[in-house]
Amino acid sequence: MSFIPLRPRLLSKRPLSQGTHGWLSKFHPLASPNGQNLIKGQFSLTDWIVIGCCIQALLVVLCPYRTIYPLAPTFALSLYKVFKAMLIGFGVIKNPHMKGVVMGRTTAIFPEADGSFNRNLGDTVGGQGICMVLLFSKCNHPLGMQYPPYKSLLAHGRTMFKDLEQNADEYGFLGYSSYHASDDTSKPNGLSIMYFRSLEYLHKYAHQSASHKEGFEWWAGMGEKVDWVSIGHEVYDVPAGGWENIYGNAKPYGFAATNHLVTDEKGERKWVCPIVDNKRMGAVQRMGRVKY
To answer: Under 8 Å CB-to-CB from 204, ≥6 apart: which residues?
Structure first.
């Protein structure tokens, strides 16, 4: 059985993980999508309404002209947002949220060593086992992301992710995606779902990486100074045939957004995205073995 790759181009340079790519900005990391979401999450909806009201009231008080002038930008921005949503809804302008969306039903599986997605009779559809790490952190201090110990934690985290990105092949690191929990109205848990080729590769990173050792020793030496900072991880070592994924009209996320090292027909190292067409498989077969 041969699966049709939906992103068949082999890349000479490994793309950044989705979680890392979300921090890219021309100006500052806090201006990136991840940065903006981090800032938004520091305050509840009520907080943001109060902040907006205070700014608007200050403009009205300080503006030497009639009240309509300091109110004009607010009404203009509101009208712009409404008309933009209408134009997108009627198909007049492109929907930015559809950028990168792969239409139809798709799945993501491990590629063969040559970058193909062929499976022989009896092979597991996914191709091999996988190790997943769920890594989370949360600041419970009123200062949130500006709380010094939490800022240090985030700095160590960035260093570790940079190490993984630069040495992905050595540590069997496939990539990660980032999310936020929804059970708090402010300062939610930040979650990173990381993918490794095996548990052995994860252990190699944990025990041999200088960045991980430095971060671990920093946390261990902080004691009560980090009582208001929560961290944790979960590790799942999943055998071949024990996992599956399926996506419908979705932007590649999670395992579908990982990057895999292969060797092309010329013997050159390349990177490939694992997302393939999923129209030929039933629910039972995705976690089973190829039967035809």
So the answer is: 170, 171, 172
Are 19 and 192 within 8 A, CB to CB? yes
Q: Give 90-144 as a DSSP string.
A: TTSS--GGGTT-EEEEEEE-PPPTTS--B--TT-BSS-S-EEEEEEEEEE-STTG
Q: 36-67 pLDDT, tens per residue?
A: 999 999 999 999 999 999 999 999 999 888 88
Closest by CA to 276, choosing from 1, 2, 5, is 5
Tokens of 291: 């039967």
Residues 6+ apart with CB under 8 A from 131: 195, 196, 197, 198, 199, 201, 202, 235, 236, 237, 238
Determine the Cα–Cα distance for residues 242 and 258; give it in Å rounded to an integer. Answer: 18
256's CB contacts (< 8 A; 6+ apart) are 106, 107, 108, 245, 247, 250, 273, 274, 275
Question: What count of other Cβ atoms lies within 10 Å of the Cβ of residue 122?
Answer: 8
Residue 187 backbone dihedrals phi, psi, to 5 degrees: 50, 55
As given in the structure block, the two tokens for residue 238 are 């999943």
- What are the backbone dihedrals phi and psi of residue 278, each rounded to the nearest 5 degrees, phi first? -120, 15
Q: Helix 148-166 to helix 210-222 angle, to the nearest 10 degrees? A: 160
Q: What is the pLDDT of residues 239-284, one digit of tens each?
A: 988 899 999 999 999 999 999 999 988 888 999 999 998 876 655 5
